[in-house]
Design goal:
Number of helices of chain C: 14
Largest interface: A-C, 45 and 43 residues
Number of domains of chain C: 1
Chains: A mainly alpha, B alpha/beta, C mainly alpha
Oligomer: heterotrimer
Number of strands of chain A: 2
CATH topology of chain C: ABC transporter involved in vitamin B12 uptake, BtuC
Shape of chain C: globular
Order of helices and strands of chain A: HHHHEEHHHHHHHH
Strand content of chain A: under 5%
Strand order of the largest sheet of chain A: 1-2
Amino acid sequence: MDPLALVEQVINGLIISIFYALAALGLSIIFGVLKIVNFAHGELYMLGGFVYFVVTSVLGLPPVVALILAFAALFLIGMTIERLLIDPVYQGKVERVDEYAIMITFGLAILLQNLMLSIFGPWTKRPEAIFHGRVEIGQLIIGGDRLAAAGIGLVVIGFVLYLLRYTWAGKAMRAVSQDRETASVVGVNAKLTGTLAFGLGSALAGTAGALIGPVFLVYPTMGVIPAIKAYVIVVLGGLGSIPGAIVGALILGQVENLLTVLIPDTTRALAYKDAYGLLLLILVLVLRPQGLFGEKVRRS
Amino acid sequence: MTVQLATDGIVKRFGGLVALDHVSIEIEAGELVGLIGPNGSGKTTLLNVLSGFYRPEQGSVRFMGRSIKGREPADLAADGIVRSFQVTKIFRRISVLENLLVPGLIDWSTSPKRAAGKAEAILESLNLGHLAHARAANLSGGQAKLLEFGRIMMLNPKLVLLDEPFGGVHPTLKHLMHDTVREWNEAGTSIILISHDMGSIFDLCRRVVALHNGNVIANGPPETVRNDPQVIEAYLGTHKAPKES
Amino acid sequence: MTGIAARRHAVLGAGTAGLFLVVPLFGFDEYWIYILTIGFYYAILASSWSLLVGYVGRISFAHVAMSGIGAYTSVLVNGMLGWPLILSIPLAGVVTGLVGLVIGRLCLQLHGAYLGLTTIAFSEIVRITITAEHEFTRGSLGISTTGLFETIDRVPYYYSFLALLLACLLLMWLVLRSRIGLFFAAIREDEDAAASLGVKIVRWKIFAFTFSSILAGLAGGFYAHFVQLVAPSMMSIQEMGFVLSMAVVGGFQNIFTAALGGIFLEGLLEALRGIGEWRLALFAVVVILILRYAPNGLFGAILQWLVPPKGKR
C-alpha cells in the first residue's frame, strides 16, 4: 500500500495509543496499589466523557474548564467508590476477596451504564472539541481535534509519571504496590494511599473519556470497548507495571491498525478488529501471565 | 533399614537467588529427622520440592527407588508423601469432619460411611471429637493445627513433612502433638520435621539436618549438630549453642 | 447437614417445585407463562454459573457465550444440515462441553481477575466471530429457527423448560453432595492444601468447567428453539451481567437460591418494564448492596431464616 497512507495509519495508531495509555495507566495504578482489577474502568471513562459533555454543552463553559472538571469529578467519584466499596476488603469485612472485588466492580459497571442510559438516553452526543480544524504536515492531513486531544493526553501522562516518581503521594503508591504491610510499617497510610490511587486511576480514565468524547462521540456504552482494550494493554504490559501500560498501549495501537490494513480481506479484517487484542490477551494470560514487565506470580 | 527418600544435588533458584545449593540428603524408612536452620536457609523450599510444589532446576529426588521429580502434589500424596504448611491451611467453610473426609474419600473404593468412621476415631484421638460438625473456621489456632494433623492421618502416609507445626502452640497442646508425632513414627511413618523449637527437635528427633544458605552444614544426632560450630555460627554469629526452650 | 435441616430443605424444595408445576393451571395471562419460561432458562444459567463460582470458587464470564454456542450449534445443524431437534440439541451440549473442556484446560493456572479477564476475552471473541461470519450466521440480525413444538401454545414450552431446569438441578445436586462436591469445596477453600492431600485439582477444575458449560449449552439449545431466534446479543457482556446479577441476588453459594434468583429477577425485569433502563440500574444497586451486606443473597437469607444452618458445606 502507498507509503503516505501507511504513515497516516501509523500516526493514527500512535494517537489512539495515547488515549489507550491514559486509560490503561489508571487501571495499572489501581491494580498495583489495591491489587484488584477494576471492572468498572470503562464506565469511569464514560463518566468523564459525560462530565465534559455536560460542562460544555449544558453549562456552556469552555472546553479546558470541562477537562479539568472531568479530572476532578472523577477523582472524587473514584475516592468515594474506594471508600464505600473497596476499603471494606482491607478492613476484613469481606469473605471471598478476589471474587468480591470482581463482582462488585462489575456490578458498579452495570449500574453506571444503565444510570447514564436512563438519564441521557442511548443517543450519541458530540460535545465541543478543544481545537478545531485540520493540521497539515507536508502531505499528511490529521484532524486537529485529534491531535490536540493526543497532545493534552501526552501532557497528562507526563504529569502522572512525574507524580509517581517525585511526589510523596506517588512514592507512597509505589511503596504500597510493592508491599502493603511493609509500607504501613514505615509510616505510609496504606488506606489513604489506596483511596488516592483509585481516585487517580478513575481520574485518568475520566480524562481519557473527556478527551475522546469530542472525537469519537459520547454515549453510555462508550466505555465497554475501551475498557477491554485497557485490560488487554495492562495484561500485555504486566498488571501493575507503569512502563508496561505505556508499551502495551503502543503495541496494541499499532497491532490493531496494521493488522486491519495488512489483512487482504478488509471487511473481514475490520469486523475482527476488536478480536486481535482479545486474542493477544488470552495468549499472554495463558503463556506468560506476568506480561512483558510484570512480576512473576509464585505459587504457595 | 532401607533408604526411603534420597535427594542428590538439588538446586532451586528464584531469579538470582539460589535457595537450595546442591542439597543431598537421605531418609531411611521409619526415621524421624529434624530439619533446622535460620530463616531463609531453604528449609521450606526443600519441603516444597519434596512435596511437588516446586520443581528443582537440577538434581534428583527418589522416593522408594523411583524418581519423583516433577510429580504433582496430589500424585505424591497418593504415593504416600503428605505435608503440613507453616500457615495453617484448613478448609474453613466446611465442617471439621468434612475436612477429614476430603483426604478420606480420595480413594473411590472407600465408602463415605467407612471414611466417616475413621475420621471420627481420629478426631476423638485428637480431642476434637465434640467439634466434628462445627465449622472449621470457628476453631482456635491450636485446634486448627490438630485438624491439619487429623487430615494427614486419614491418608496413612509413608512420609510426613511437617513445616513448623508447633509455632505459637500452647504447651499442653504441644504435648499432645508430640505424642501424636511419636505415635506416627512408632507405627512406621517416616517424618521430616522443620522446627525452630529446639525443645521439640530434641524431644522427638534422633537425627538432625542443618541448612544454611541452601547448603547442608551438619547432619547427625541432635546433640552433635547443636554443638557444631558451623551451626552455631549460622544461627547466632557468636559462640553460643542454640538455646533449648 | 443435620437430619432436621435436610428434611426442611427437601420440603421447601418440593413445595417450590410443586408451586411452579401448578402455576399454569391458575389461568394466568399467557404472557406470564412465557416470562416464567424465560425465567427457567436464566435459572439454569444462574445455577450452573453458581456451581463454578460458589462451589469451586472460580469466576467465569464465559457462561453466556457457552449458552450462545449451544444455541447456534443446534440452530445451524438443524437449519443447514437438516438434523432433527432431538439430535441437534444434545449435540449442542456435546459441542459446548468440548469447548468448556478446552477453556477449562487453558485456564487451569488462572484464577481471580486473570480468569475473569480471560473468560471475558473468550466470550467477546465468540460474539465477534459469530457476528463477523455473517454468511453462515447472518451476523447481528440473527437466525430464525424452528420451535420445539408445532403449537403456538406456551404451556408445553413452560413444562419442557421446567423439566430441564429440575433435571439440571438434580444432576448438579447429585454431583455436589457426592465426594466430588467435597473436592470442589476443598479446591475453593485452599487449592494447595487440597493438592497436598491428594485432591486431583486439574481433573476436578476441568470437570467443573465442562459440566457447567454443558448445562449452559443445553439451556441455550432449548432456548433457541423456544424463542425461535438466535442472535449474537444473547452472548453480550450485558447478558452476562444479568446472569451474574441473578445468581448474586438469589444467592450464588447455593444452586437452588441462584436458580430462584434467575426466575425472580426475570419476573422483576418484566414487571418493571415501565420504568425503562432504570430497572437495570436498580438491579445493579441491589447487587452491590447484597455483595456488600448480604453475600448469601435474597433467597439465601430467606433460607437461612427458615432453616438455621449448623455447619453447612
